[in-house]
């Protein structure tokens, strides 16, 4: 952003404002008749007040993150205040010829005056008329202290249109040019709006402060027919005035995940940008988007330009946020053509988003392609149209509403004020699609790979075994790559799965010449946007990509260039050969050589990279439309440049030179052989990748029968499929749906790469600790080459393959690898035979840190600590300073105090055997620490203490995306509730518990069916954005008011900012998990290639929280291969209050890192449900207790040496850390730990966790339900309670449920003991975890998450009696209803949103229509849909039953039948269906149910039964068993 | 190609079959047989492909055990031998006579029976020999550097093989009349038939290694000066050959011998009857035939003495072990999994005849006419030499006309080492922490460096030493002495 960031700090240490995210509440209003009214402002602001809970405050509770309103330019108001501008009312030009620049100006008078002159001069220079300035009357006392301290001076400049401008549109373009040139020139003026059509009031305010701050908003002449309002929740620590919404044309709720790529591409395409309308003015407005701009502001910039350059608002919105069309059934051809055409101009701006936009004449609202944000609308009898994040925020009498609807994924809701019409159901899109023959134009400019003549392409030859072996050696293949990675990919067409996480040393410290890819770690979505499930939600995903020059973004008409269309970015060797030789349809390929002469030594590589860049430019000048980087020239004399370096260097060079969009970039490399490699190449600029050695390798393996009995061709094809599937997984981890948006988005961070190298060739990538430079990379490249061609390097034999041994007769063997499983001569792991054995010996032989075990522990700790230092852990590179004299050991606080800060990590029962799970719980309860239930429920028998004082209860109850076993009773039995956002070992992944591990016991605890696989979704379906997390925290507090709430994040760049947001959302406790944490099962590339060490995440979090003054509100915990007291010491000094241990305690109980947790074959009974293997478990709670005391004792000794008596005094004392002398490794001299050790607070005043600093919690029961029901809860007597409610009332029934299960246990009270009769619009999470015995009946409507976690209660929602619309045609509840419900019943008279009954595992429900993804991941219960269904019904559904009314027999096309069959109803089904319909009718008065029950053409014959196949099989087996049992 | 995850649950361990003790005791042939291929595959399927393969660490060679187990399971024998040879020059030796620390470290040894790794190893190499896959692989070019390896035991052979592979010219000097060291002269043919050593040596010769037998380096045959002048580097692999003796009354009596002297004679005898070269005439012939034999010492050497005594038809054979019987589960508390148990539990000889007593300390030898006739001892408790305690009233006397002392070795013989001027560590072994002695160009490996150890350690020592020696030889500033000596 070129404008001033009024309060944002510069990047310091690891905090970087670029990581900021926001989420929010948004609404817009319009008068259909187009008549400007002040009432629109009044009602818009009232609506905003009702969204305030979606916003947030920073450390200063009075300072909001931002609020604002966008209205039509109020001409009446301008005339009324003409004198303020120094003009008379009569001097003000008529509408269309006058504009207002709303300016945020610096407080400094002199500076401001200068800027004002700049603006005036610019207006004049562009031939427009300066009319006068006005001071906007503001009331700073109504904003918070922090906001006030950075408050700009707010002034408005009135500008008149000159005769040069032919029309108002031309005037608007002039205003744009004036604004951009001034912004670019001065860099510190910010104009929230500058338009002849609209005006914006906004600021760093909370919703209620907005109208108090701006007196204008209360002025009766301030009229408008349309308004957009917005309330902001920013994760960033420094919300600014400027970043408040609405922006000039839009307001946004959500996050644009693809921003990095979008901004890069916008920059790249500026070179070919031209517009007849702008003419030469355009060039002066570049760059269009400055780096560091917030996502929504960047969106607004581009959106504005597209509109000014001549596209209509809906057209521009459709370009930037295309709906899913590639895999979505039923998209009309015209629409598809539109999207194909425009995909040639711009990639999707993707991510969870609700965007509302207006130019004052047209109001639109749209959602992202996956519908991940809520949007509810209504139309009233008297001409109001309102769209809002929440139903009920715009209040109208019930009898006035004539329609209630919601925004659909990728579909627009619009109001055309000129025509006085509402456009919904795709009408706006159809109009745009009909404007031009988009599809034909697209086809004209497209070359299909299959159409290219192949007669000139030489036939592909399979390399000889010898050639292939040389190539494998030269590209650094290991035996493990073949055995562990490639063979499973070729066999199963998907990535292999592994367990127990990544305990590998960083690539920076590897002596085995790891590939450059291993220095890059994938980033992933957490909290501020959701990961996607690319398997179950494939309909939103797309790998379609164009290769070739782009066309001018602003042109409309035939495309100005031709592209090669690829259905996927992975090229087979044959396709790559075609591409090499391409000269067809005006598209030619230039092949550039990615190798360099070995004779030039390491220095030669840098030169070669420069040469490549120059050649790429030259090729483009010569007219090549595709550049293919290839390392096929590798031979004994030429070594390969790391393909990622070459690709990114060329891409960055071309972006800088402005040539990037003139040609497509593809890569042909032998180096790439994993999903991560291909993803990185694409992420750094390649549109297509051909990993030819990988394909040759799988073909050879197949021909040698090393991959079952596959034909080589089949093996190759499956490898392609595996890469594709894996790529989708990588994209979706970041919440990105299309490869176009992922391409060049650089969603990686570098760990261990020199910053200069990164800045030059991977521009924009974060590299926190510095590291190896191009010289070292070249040396490693040559080392790999030498393995293949020793004589070229003056070596006598291939030899030296194994670092420690000479080869015998095996010079042709590939290196071992040792990445996925330890090998003595392979890569180093943190857990190896020595560490495992010594730790087991230490802890299994003594008590509480005394005796023999201490000796063995000392051996263990010494080895671990030294290895950490020498081989690859950041904490090993740091050492504690000792400025103070030592103190006697006995003065240091005792170990019994220290161990209270320890907890064990989240490992579910299911992943672990009951024996192991309970051993950990008992141990932690004995020492006053905490064990963590993990995601899998817990047996209530463990909630009571045993006679001997032992307690098998997990103090921490985890709530993860699967919500398995998360009931009201489970939550009530927690000291801490932990929301697992991400898991260090596999961030962005969901989980899978294979059917084999779902035994009777596990199934019972998880409310599922034994033997049926369980799937945890990648995201929490009630957390798509930060304000959702705030809501979930609130919900969980109602479910257990006395428990603290923890949020577990995974370490990555930007995690500090997310953590700040989490703290603002009200969490008491934040866990930062390192990438090296464990996992039960995950794709290997996720374990190895996503996330970073906790040291980086912790440092960033601590620094960000300090900067933000939020540190004292929260306890920080870290985990990720914590093993020794020294580890704890470093963590404490870096800011952690608490310390989580997972792998080490497991090892203590017998785990030997077999890494087969996902196979149920753990030979020591730790991670198996097999009774035979469980018997082998020998772990004891004593062992765990021993271990943690040994750690504490080691820590105490270290503390004594440092002269510190209390652990609390160490927390955050990063000034006591310094880099150690361990940086002696030849590769590590470039490591720079300065940023990790940045300290903004003085040691004496270091803010630490302080319960006093935590702001007062929100009222959990504003309706006073508990007080009224208390007697009934105690006695079990029936009670009826009535309330009128608003959308501000959230999680209604939560605290009552908590009380009920606390007193009566999991089953609660007899049905309908407590009846809540409600009227109005319910806030989010109505009836969350509603316990048995409670019934809620709502007349009105409800928002998202109705009945989430339903635990036995009964819910019914129906329209108000006075409703003037047909219930079944209107929306009654929001998205994600009944998420994770385990029991109870729910009845909804009307339509529901997306993901109805997602992960339902026991509730029964009737609803009159659902959006997309209905019954997703369902494992139990029964859902009846008696109205329309959206797409992708039953995706991932493994249990339970759905009955869907399907009179026109179209449902099959909208049902995802990967796991389910559609069947006719049987006799039992009919009985169940009838009972539910009867109850639905009884509770809601449903007309549809009445008709269906009446029969007459609507009988059960028109229902289909959705039946999960596995579920059916298991049920059949069980009933057969039961029958056999009976007869026997 | 991933291991069968449930193999270890489904398949019980099967140990290699042995020939019937009643039959084999009458000959000197190999007693172990190989499991049939289907059973081998089943046994290989018990390997779990551990995330952390402790066997790989437990093996001094770092044998890639999970890898070749799985190749055997899937029938990829050819690939298996490549993997096996990658870390082990002589798998047939270890496959037969290694005490298999890998199996002690096998994860299944925690609570089950370990994978029969040794058997699979042996099967792989035997299959490879049978298929003709084991062939000479001479280096493509020569560096011109000359290396003398002193000693042709497993350490010397491994060092020679490796140094030859990287192109150095290697001559192995052996004091005895044939190669193999204790492998040939200490180990009975029942455990390792000696043609296997010859087969390997033949291959090494084909690859270019020279062997010279009957050469006492540093003694009469080749002076140290000459050696140093003719070779760029010297690798000392002379073993740890000074036997540990016992001081007690009657030690001087006739019929009391060091076990290794007995085994040397027996092995030379077996070599002769199978057509091998004649060894030197012994000073005293040691025979167990018709005698009451007492072996002092419970290790493999002692067991090998029993084996020979059985075959000589001794009147009785009794092995007295000072330590107690190994507990159930095979481990004393101080050697928990995955450590190798301190005591070997091999009992093959006892299956053929003879007896073993635990916790018996011999304190006196008695006899008349200068010949031993009785062994006197008492019972003791304790698991280490420092913790032995006498059980009161437990004295015993057993008849013995032949007493063999098999209580280990104290260190390398000093003459050559002194001649080379290398230092010794506190235990008398060559002080060469990283294989290189302070004397430039003099390296040491095997038992001479680390003291008495396992054959697998010896091979590993030879391999590592070769790497260090090669690095030293490959330093650019070094002009090869051998080059001038041989004219290039």
Could you please describe the fold and organization of this structure?
The complex is a heterodimer of chains A (1528) and B (488). With 1528 residues, chain A is an alpha/beta fold. In chain A, helix 20 crosses helix 21. The longest helix of chain A is centred in the middle third of the chain and has 22 residues. Chain B is α/β, with parallel strands linked by helices and 488 residues long. Chain B is 35% helix and 15% strand. In chain B, the strands form 4 sheets. A 5-stranded parallel sheet of chain B has the order 3-2-1-4-16, sandwiched between helices. In chain B, strand 7, helix 15 and strand 8 form a beta-alpha-beta unit. In chain B, helix 5 crosses helix 9 and helix 7 packs antiparallel against helix 9. The radius of gyration of chain B is 23 Å and the shape is globular. The termini of chain B are far apart. Chains A and B meet through helix 15 and helix 25 of A and helix 4, helix 6, helix 10 and helix 19 of B.
What is the tally of beta strands of chain A? 53
Average pLDDT figure of chain A: 91
Query: Which segments of chain A are poorly predicted (pLDDT under 50) over 5 or more consecutive residues?
Result: 1-10, 800-809
Largest sheet of chain A: 10 strands, mixed
Q: What integer is the average pLDDT of chain B?
A: 92
Largest interface: A-B, 53 and 53 residues
Q: Count the helices of chain B. How many?
A: 20
Q: Structural class, from secondary structure content of chain A?
A: alpha/beta
State the assembly state of the protein chains: heterodimer
- Major sheet: arrangement of strands of chain A: 44-45-46-47-48-49-50-51-53-52
Query: What is the SS-derived class of chain B?
Result: alpha/beta
């Amino acid at each position: 952003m070129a404008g001033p960031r009024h309060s944002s700090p510069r990047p310091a240490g690891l905090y970087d404002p670029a990581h900021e995210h926001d989420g929010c509440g948004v609404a817009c209003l319009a008068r259909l008749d187009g008549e400007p009214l002040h009432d629109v402002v009044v009602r818009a602001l009232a609506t905003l007040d009702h969204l305030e809970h979606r916003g947030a405050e920073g450390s200063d509770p009075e300072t909001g993150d931002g609020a604002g309103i966008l209205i039509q330019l109020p001409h009446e108001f301008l005339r009324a205040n003409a004198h303020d501008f120094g003009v008379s009312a009569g001097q003000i030009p008529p509408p269309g010829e006058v504009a207002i620049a709303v300016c945020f100006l610096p407080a400094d008078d002199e500076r401001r005056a200068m800027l004002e002159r700049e603006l005036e001069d610019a207006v004049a220079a562009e031939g427009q008329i300066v009319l006068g300035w006005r001071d906007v009357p503001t009331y700073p006392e109504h904003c918070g202290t922090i906001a006030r301290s950075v408050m700009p001076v707010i002034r408005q400049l009135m500008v008149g249109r000159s005769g040069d401008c032919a029309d108002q549109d031309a005037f608007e373009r002039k205003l744009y040019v004036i604004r951009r040139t001034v912004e670019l020139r001065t860099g510190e003026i910010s104009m929230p709006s500058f338009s002849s059509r609209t005006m914006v009031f906004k600021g760093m305010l909370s919703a209620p402060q907005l109208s108090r701050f701006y007196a204008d908003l209360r002025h009766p002449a301030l009229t408008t027919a349309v308004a957009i309002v917005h309330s902001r929740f920013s994760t960033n620590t420094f919300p600014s005035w400027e970043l408040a919404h609405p922006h000039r044309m839009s307001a946004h709720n959500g996050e644009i995940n693809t921003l990095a790529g979008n901004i890069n591409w916008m920059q790249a395409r500026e070179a070919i940008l031209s517009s007849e309308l702008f003419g030469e003015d355009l060039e002066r407005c570049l760059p269009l988007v400055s780096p560091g701009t917030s996502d929504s502001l960047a969106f607004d910039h581009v959106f504005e330009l597209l509109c000014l350059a001549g596209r209509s608002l809906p057209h521009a919105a459709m370009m930037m946020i295309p709906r899913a069309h590639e895999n979505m059934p039923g998209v009309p051809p015209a629409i598809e053509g539109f999207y194909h055409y425009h995909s040639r101009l711009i990639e999707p701006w993707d991510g969870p988003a609700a965007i509302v936009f207006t130019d004052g004449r047209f109001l639109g609202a749209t959602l992202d392609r996956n519908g991940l944000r809520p949007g509810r609308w209504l139309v009233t009898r008297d001409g109001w149209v309102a769209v809002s994040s929440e139903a009920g925020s715009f209040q109208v009498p019930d009898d006035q509403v004539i329609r209630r609807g919601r925004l659909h994924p990728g579909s627009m809701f619009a109001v055309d004020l000129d025509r006085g019409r509402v456009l919904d159901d795709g009408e706006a899109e159809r109009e745009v699609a009909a404007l031009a023959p988009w599809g034909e134009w697209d086809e004209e400019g497209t070359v299909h790979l299959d159409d290219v003549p192949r007669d000139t392409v030489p036939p592909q030859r399979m390399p000889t075994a010898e050639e292939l072996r040389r190539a494998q050696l030269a590209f650094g293949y290991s035996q493990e790559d073949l055995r562990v990675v490639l063979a499973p990919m070729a066999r199963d067409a998907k990535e292999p799965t592994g367990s127990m996480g990544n305990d590998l040393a960083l690539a920076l410290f590897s002596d085995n010449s790891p590939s450059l890819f291993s220095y890059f770690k994938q980033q992933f979505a957490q909290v501020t946007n959701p990961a996607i499930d690319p398997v179950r939600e494939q309909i939103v995903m797309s790998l379609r990509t164009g290769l070739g020059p782009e066309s001018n973004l602003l042109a409309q008409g035939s495309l100005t260039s031709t592209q090669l269309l690829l259905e996927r970015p992975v090229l087979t060797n044959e396709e790559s050969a075609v591409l090499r030789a391409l000269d067809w349809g005006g598209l030619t390929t230039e092949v550039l050589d990615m190798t360099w002469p070995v004779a030039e030594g390491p220095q030669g590589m840098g030169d070669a990279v420069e040469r490549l860049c120059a050649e790429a430019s030259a090729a483009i000048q010569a007219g090549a439309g595709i550049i293919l980087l290839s390392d096929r020239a590798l031979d004994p004399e030429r070594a390969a440049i790391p393909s990622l370096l070459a690709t990114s260097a060329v891409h960055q060079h071309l972006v800088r030179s402005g040539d990037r969009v003139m040609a497509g970039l593809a890569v042909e490399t032998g180096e790439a052989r994993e999903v991560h490699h291909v993803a990185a190449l694409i992420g750094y600029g390649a549109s297509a990748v051909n990993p030819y050695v990988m394909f040759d390798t799988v073909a050879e393996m197949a021909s040698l029968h090393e991959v079952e009995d596959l034909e080589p061709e089949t093996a190759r094809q499956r490898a392609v499929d595996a890469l594709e599937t894996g790529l989708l997984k990588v994209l979706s981890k970041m919440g990105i749906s299309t490869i176009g948006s992922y391409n060049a988005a650089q969603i990686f961070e570098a760990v261990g790469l020199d910053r200069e190298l990164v800045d030059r060739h991977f521009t924009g990538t974060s590299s926190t600790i510095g590291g190896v430079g191009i010289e070292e990379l070249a040396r490693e490249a040559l080392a790999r080459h030498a393995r293949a061609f020793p004589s070229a390097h003056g070596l006598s034999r291939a030899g030296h393959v194994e670092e420690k041994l000479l080869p015998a007769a095996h010079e042709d063997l590939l290196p071992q690898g040792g990445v996925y499983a330890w090998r003595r001569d392979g890569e180093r792991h943190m857990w190896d035979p020595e560490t495992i054995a010594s730790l087991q010996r230490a802890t299994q032989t003594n008590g509480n840190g005394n005796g023999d075990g201490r000796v063995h522990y000392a051996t263990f700790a010494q080895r671990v600590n030294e290895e950490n230092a020498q081989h690859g852990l950041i904490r090993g590179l740091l050492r504690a300073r000792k400025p103070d004299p030592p103190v006697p050991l006995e003065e240091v606080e005792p170990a019994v105090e220290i161990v209270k800060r320890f907890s064990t990590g989240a490992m579910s029962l299911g992943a672990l055997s009951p024996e192991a799970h309970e051993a950990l719980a008992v141990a932690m309860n004995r020492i006053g620490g905490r064990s963590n239930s993990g995601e899998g429920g817990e047996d209530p028998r463990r909630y009571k203490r045993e006679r001997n004082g032992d307690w098998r209860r997990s103090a921490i109850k985890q709530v993860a995306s699967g919500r398995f076993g998360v009931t009201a009773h489970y939550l009530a039995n927690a000291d801490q509730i932990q929301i697992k956002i991400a898991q260090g070992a596999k961030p962005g992944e969901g989980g899978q518990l294979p059917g084999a591990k779902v035994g009777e016991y596990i199934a019972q605890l998880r409310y599922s069916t034994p033997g049926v696989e369980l799937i945890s979704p990648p995201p929490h379906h009630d957390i798509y954005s930060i304000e959702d997390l705030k809501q979930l925290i609130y919900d969980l507090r109602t479910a257990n008011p006395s428990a603290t709430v923890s949020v577990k994040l995974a370490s990555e760049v930007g995690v500090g900012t997310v953590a700040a947001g989490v703290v603002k959302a009200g969490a008491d406790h934040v866990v930062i998990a390192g990438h090296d944490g464990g996992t039960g099962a995950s794709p290997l590339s996720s374990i190895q290639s996503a996330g970073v060490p906790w040291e980086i995440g912790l440092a960033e979090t601590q620094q960000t929280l300090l900067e933000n003054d939020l540190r004292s509100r929260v306890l920080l915990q870290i985990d990720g291969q914590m093993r020794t007291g020294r580890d704890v010491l470093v963590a404490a000094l870096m800011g952690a209050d608490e310390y989580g241990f997972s792998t080490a305690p497991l090892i203590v109980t017998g785990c030997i890192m077999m890494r087969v947790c996902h196979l149920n074959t753990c030979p020591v009974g730790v991670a198996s449900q097999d009774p035979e293997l469980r018997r082998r478990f020998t772990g004891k709670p004593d062992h765990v207790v021993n271990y943690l005391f040994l750690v504490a004792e080691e820590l105490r000794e270290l503390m004594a040496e440092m002269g510190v008596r209390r652990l609390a005094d160490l927390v955050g004392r990063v000034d006591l850390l310094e880099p150690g002398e361990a940086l002696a490794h030849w590769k590590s001299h470039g490591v720079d730990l300065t940023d990790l050790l940045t300290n903004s607070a003085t040691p004496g005043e270091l803010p630490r966790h302080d319960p006093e600093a935590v702001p007062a919690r929100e009222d959990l029961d504003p309706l006073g339900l508990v007080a009224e029901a208390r007697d009934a809860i105690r006695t079990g007597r029936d009670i009826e309670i009535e309330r009128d409610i608003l959308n501000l009332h959230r999680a209604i029934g939560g605290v009552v449920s908590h009380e009920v299960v606390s007193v009566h246990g999991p089953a609660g009270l007899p049905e309908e003991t407590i009846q809540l009769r409600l009227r109005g619009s319910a806030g989010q999470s109505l009836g969350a975890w509603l316990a048995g015995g409670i019934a809620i009946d709502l007349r009105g409507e409800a928002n998202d998450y109705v009945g989430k976690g339903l635990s036995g209660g009964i819910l019914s929602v129906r329209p108000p009696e006075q409703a003037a619309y047909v219930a079944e045609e209107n929306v009654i509840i929001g998205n994600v209803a009944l998420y994770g419900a385990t029991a109870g019943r729910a009845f909804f008279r009307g339509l529901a949103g997306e993901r109805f009954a997602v992960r339902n595992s026991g509730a029964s429900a009737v609803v009159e229509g659902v959006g997309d993804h209905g019954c997703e991941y369902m494992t139990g219960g029964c859902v009846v849909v008696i109205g329309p269904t959206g797409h992708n019904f039953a995706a991932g559904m493994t249990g339970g039953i759905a009955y869907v009314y399907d009179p026109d027999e179209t449902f099959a096309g909208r049902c995802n039948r990967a796991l389910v069959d559609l069947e006719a109803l049987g006799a039992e089904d009919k009985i169940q269906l009838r009972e539910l319909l009867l109850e639905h009718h009884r509770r809601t008065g449903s007309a549809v149910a009445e008709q269906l029950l009446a029969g007459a053409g609507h009988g059960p014959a028109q229902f289909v039964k959705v039946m999960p196949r596995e579920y059916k099989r298991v049920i059949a087996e069980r009933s057969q068993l039961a029958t056999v049992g009976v007869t026997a | 190609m991933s291991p069968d995850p449930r193999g270890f649950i489904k398949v019980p361990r099967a140990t290699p079959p042995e020939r019937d003790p009643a039959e084999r005791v009458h000959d000197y042939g190999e007693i172990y047989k190989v499991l049939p291929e289907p059973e081998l595959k089943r046994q290989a399927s018990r390997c779990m492909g551990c995330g952390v393969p402790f066997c790989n660490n437990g093996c001094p060679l770092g044998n890639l055990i999970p890898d070749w187990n799985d190749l055997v399971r899937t029938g990829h024998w050819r690939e298996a031998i490549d993997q096996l040879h990658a870390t082990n020059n002589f798998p047939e030796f270890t496959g037969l006579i290694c005490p298999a620390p890998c199996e002690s470290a096998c994860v299944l040894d925690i609570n089950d029976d370990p994978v029969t790794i040794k058997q699979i190893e042996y099967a792989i190499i035997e299959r490879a020999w049978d298929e003709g896959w084991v062939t000479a692989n001479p280096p493509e070019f020569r560096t011109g550097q000359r290396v003398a390896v002193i000693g042709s035991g497993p350490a010397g052979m491994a060092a020679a093989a490796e140094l030859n592979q990287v192109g150095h010219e290697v001559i192995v000097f052996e004091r005895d009349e044939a190669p193999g060291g204790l492998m040939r002269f200490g180990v009975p043919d029942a455990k390792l038939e000696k043609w296997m050593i010859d087969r390997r040596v033949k291959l090494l010769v084909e690859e270019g290694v020279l062997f010279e037998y009957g050469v006492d380096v540093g003694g009469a045959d080749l002076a140290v000066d000459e050696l140093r002048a003719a070779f760029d580097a010297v690798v000392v692999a002379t073993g740890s050959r000074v036997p540990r003796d016992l001081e007690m009354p009657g030690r001087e009596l006739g019929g009391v011998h060091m076990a290794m002297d007995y085994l040397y004679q027996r092995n030379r005898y077996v070599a002769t009857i199978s057509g091998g070269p004649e060894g030197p005439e012994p000073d005293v012939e040691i025979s167990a035939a018709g005698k009451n034999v007492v072996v002092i010492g419970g290790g493999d050497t002692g067991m090998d003495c029993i084996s020979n005594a059985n075959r000589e038809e001794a009147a009785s054979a009794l092995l007295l072990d000072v330590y107690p019987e190994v507990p159930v589960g095979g481990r004393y508390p101080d050697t928990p999994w995955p450590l190798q148990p301190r005591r070997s539990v091999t009992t093959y000889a006892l299956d053929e005849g003879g007896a073993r007593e635990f916790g018996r300390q011999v304190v006196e030898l008695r006899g008349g006419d200068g010949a031993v006739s009785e062994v006197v001892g008492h019972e003791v408790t304790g698991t280490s030499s420092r913790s032995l305690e006498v059980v009161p009233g437990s004295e015993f006397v057993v008849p013995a006309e032949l007493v063999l002392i098999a209580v280990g070795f104290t260190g390398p013989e000093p003459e050559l080492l002194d001649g080379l001027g290398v230092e010794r560590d506190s235990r008398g072994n060559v002080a060469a922490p990283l294989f290189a002695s302070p004397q430039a160009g003099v390296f040491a490996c095997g038992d001479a460096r680390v003291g008495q150890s396992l054959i697998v350690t010896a091979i590993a020592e030879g391999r590592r030493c070769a790497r260090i020696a090669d690095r030293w030889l490959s330093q650019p500033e070094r002009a090869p002495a051998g080059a001038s000596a041989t004219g290039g």
